[in-house]
Design a protein that fits this description.
With about 240 residues, this protein is mostly helical. It contains 14 helices and no strands. The radius of gyration is 20 Å and the shape is globular. It starts with a helix and ends with a helix.
Length: about 240
């Protein structure tokens, strides 16, 4: 099989493409894929609604209520109309929810037999309290937290790979180099500290960073609808982090 065809085949099995492929008729596979995405990417919405002025309790209720509605209703019809990016779909669906279903969500609250995406409210609020206190708009903080959540998911996957290989200690030693300026890494000094040769450390850091980039692209692929969108989404996320 040609390399391009092989990539297309692998891409077709990502979570968001499974959701989009469901179209008007939901399927158990699409519902599971959507729930997995929601579990990973709920915090940017919490930060968004907090920045819009809602207090902690209302932000938790709104975020939880939205996901309960999202996982029960046929929101998949709208997904294909919103450019195929899960990031865009999720925010637009949340904005509609806030505009149209605020009173209902407060009346229903959480519980009953509704499908719930578990939210760690304490963690969410701790994270929100250390958000930048400048004038970032709700939309901007959503974009920034989305990018950071992708990075967190990627680091988690990378750490799990090292753990599965029995090398979690090595990962803990090297993870600080993931974001360090390559030209400023004190290889000679750190090699002595870590009990490695300088050459060995350089190779280990290079492999770590290369694998991180691979996993990061894979994580982005989970949230877009075609391979052609990956590069554009990558540029967008880097801009969001820098802005």
């Amino acid at each position: 099989m040609p390399a391009s065809s092989e990539r297309q085949g692998r891409f077709a099995t990502t979570r968001w493409t499974v959701v989009l492929a469901a179209g008007r008729s939901t399927s158990p596979q699409a519902e599971r894929a959507l729930e997995e995405l929601c579990r990973a990417y709920w915090y940017p919405l919490y930060a968004y609604v907090r920045r819009r002025g809602h207090n902690r309790e209302d932000a938790e209720d709104l975020t939880q209520g939205f996901f309960a509605r999202l996982l029960e209703k046929d929101y998949l019809q709208a997904a294909s109309r919103e450019r195929g990016r899960f990031r865009t779909f999720l925010l637009m669906a949340f904005q509609r929810f806030l505009a149209n279903e605020w009173d209902r969500s407060r009346a229903q609250k959480r519980g009953g037999d509704r499908t719930i995406v578990p939210l760690d409210a304490e963690l969410a609020e701790r994270r929100y309290q250390i958000e930048p206190v400048d004038e970032l708009s709700a939309d901007r903080i959503y974009e920034r937290r989305w990018a950071l959540t992708l990075i967190e998911e990627t680091v988690g996957r990378l750490r799990q790979e090292f753990t599965d290989a029995g090398k979690v200690g090595e990962f803990e030693q090297l993870k600080a180099f993931l974001t360090a300026d390559r030209e400023k890494i004190p290889y000679a000094e750190m090699a002595v500290t870590l009990g490695q040769t300088e050459g060995g450390l350089r190779v280990a850091v290079h492999r770590l960073r290369r694998r991180f980039r691979e996993l990061f692209r894979q994580e982005i692929a989970q949230t877009v609808s075609s391979p052609e969108e990956i590069e554009g989404e990558l540029r967008y996320l880097l801009k969001a982090l820098g802005g």
